[in-house]
Amino acid sequence: MRCPSPKSVRSTIAAAQFCAAALVPLAMSGCKDTTAPPKPPYLAVVTRLTTWPGASAPAKVKYRIRESTAGVVRFDQEFIVSPSDTIVVPVIPGTYIVEAEDLPARCVLPRGNRQQGISVSEADNTGIIRYQIECRGLLSLTVVADGYSVDQEFVFRARSKVTGLERTGLVSANDTLTIEDIGAGDIELDIGGVSPNCVITTDGGSRQTVRVTPTGGAAIQFRVQCADVARQP
């Protein structure tokens, strides 16, 4: 580029301004904006965590995201995040496998597998994978009580038919507690301390048996109905 020859001090300044303005686009064309956010497509992993009463929830969850084409791995990263966080990562177009790893034994995926796949194209903005994680207690005991002068709490006894191990305690009316240290197998549960004006209406009366697995999730419910004895026919 030839700049005009100046004929005076004023024209010298004008010529310098002209040349500087002309050179700015050339300089900018060779620069890269390192602060600009990555461009799409993106891949997002969303977690929804449900915790049963008395059960423990993990502080972190771990996901692995992979992509390979013709046996060549082009993307392979692990992410360890809080269950309330959403992973959003820029990716190249391709087919991705997302896997939930190292979940606690009592945390399960009731609506899907640990491994999910998704295809992301150049036309996509964001591909979304959703995980629903449910963390359960080993055995949940619920007593539902209603009517007149309802007992506020009941005595329970849990006994393993496999090992003979027993656990006893109190459970409040219209509440749920978790029994964790009883082991897997068939568990026999009894409730007592029921007032004379109340009756257990659950099938089997005051005793029920449930099969408990190491992954947890077993549940037993007792229903108690109370009435005013003075008003009974």
Can you characterise this structure?
The structure is a single chain. This protein is mainly beta and 233 residues long. The chain has one helix and 16 strands. It has one helix at 9-29, and strands at 42-51, 61-69, 72-81, 87-90, 94-101, 107-108, 115-120, 126-135, 139-147, 153-160, 166-172, 175-179, 185-192, 198-200, 207-212, 218-226. The strands form four sheets. It has a four-stranded mixed sheet, with no helix packed on it. It has a four-stranded antiparallel sheet with strand order 3-2-5-7, with no helix packed on it. The chain has a four-stranded mixed sheet with strand order 12-9-16-14, with no helix packed on it. It is elongated, with a radius of gyration of 33 Å. The protein starts with 8 loop residues before the first helix and ends in a 7-residue tail after the last strand.
The fraction of residues in strands falls at over 45%
Strand order of the largest sheet: 4-1-8-6
The biggest sheet, with number of strands, parallel, antiparallel or mixed sense and barrel status, is:
4 strands, mixed
Low-confidence stretches: 2-6, 8-31
Q: Termini, distance in Å?
A: 111 Å
Describe the global form. Answer: elongated
> Would you count the extended β strands for me?
16
Oligomeric state of this protein: single chain
Helix content: under 10%
Number of helices: 1
Indicate the mean pLDDT. Answer: 85
Question: What pattern of helices and strands is seen along the backbone?
Answer: HEEEEEEEEEEEEEEEE
Helix and strand content put the structural class at: mainly beta
Radius of gyration, taken over Cα atoms and rounded to an integer in Å: 33 Å
